[in-house]
Amino acid sequence: MTALPLILSIAAFLSLGLSTDAHHRRRFGAGPTAGRRRALRSAGWTGLGAAFIPAILARGWVFGPILWVAAIMAGAAIAFLVLNLVPDPRSRA
After folding, report:
1. Is 74 exposed, middle or buried (0-12, 13-18, 19+ CB in 10 A)?
2. I want to staple 44 with a disulfide (CB 3.0 to 4.6 A). Which of 4, 15, 33, 86 is the partner?
3. Total-model pTM
């Protein structure tokens, strides 16, 4: 249960990152449409909020928020590294 907030945070920050023109264009070849941008942002913010629930269930009301904040910080760092340093798989050919 402790890993779930981290997984949700990584997915949320990847969604938020892919809602930007630069990251979306780098991964998919074109900028996101308005509907896709809205969906990615909604998924990202929902994922960050949803990560709070398993953090509270895993560590209680005292340490749950601390776990949630730590998962958000780690998720942001991992998503940043993935979006900026992992090469596009289509560019290998």
Report:
1. middle
2. 15
3. 0.90
pLDDT of residue 19: 95
Q: 64, 5 in Cβ contact below 8 A?
A: no
Rounded to a whole number of angstroms, the distance between the first and last alpha carbons of the chain is 40
Smallest CA-to-CA distance from 28 within 88, 85, 82 is with 88
How many residues are there in the chain?
A: 93
Q: What is the pLDDT of residues 65-85, one digit of tens each?
A: 999 999 999 999 999 999 999
- Outline where 1-93 has alpha helix (H): 3-18, 21-28, 34-50, 52-85
